Amino acid sequence: MKLIIKYSRHGAVKYISHLDMQRTFGRAVRRAGLPAEYSQGFNPHIIMSFASPLSVGYETEGDYLELSLAREMDPRRVKEALNAVLPHELRVLDAHEAAGTKKLMAQNESAAYRIKIHFKNEGDCDKIRNAAEKLRTAQEYAAKDRKGRELDIRPLILEIGMDGDEVRLLLKNASDGALNPAVAANALLLEAGVDAEYSVCRTECYTVENGKRIPFQEYSF
To answer: Which residues form the DUF2344 domain (predicted)?
Structure first.
């Protein structure tokens, strides 16, 4: 039995690495007494994989993992059992059985983010709004990635806009191209001439089928 599990992380948990996230969920599965399926070989491990690694320091309201169980179990009981042993800042939001054999990670196409900028000065929000509009309408836009390399980020930004004082982004997140939201956020701040810190929250992961973008929550794996 394969389950698709949607989870959130907030607070101090956002500072743990992807490897530690894997370990945390692995320990939770064992502590909850779930009948996990294990790999074969000299070093068996729980068969579990994550849709997309999340950078240290980012929160999420819509990340996913797939978990294989050795026998049938009510997904609602799995959700309850995991939440009973996980840190309170790490929550399972939904669990449902996968209908087919599609691999979670292979379906990644894009991810949505909410960027909360902690403005210092009056008028900075309008500057960011103007910068976001300039980036939205640009044919190409050069920016530096987190390693200092220059690249055209415009093809990797599928949607960009403002919701109140927050920036909303839909970014490419696939094997043939992906953009870290920090690169887009830093480009906006530089374009706007604004000096401010910001926080990042992933809100959903998406796939594409028959030309239609579908959130993982609604996709039949």
So the answer is: 2-181
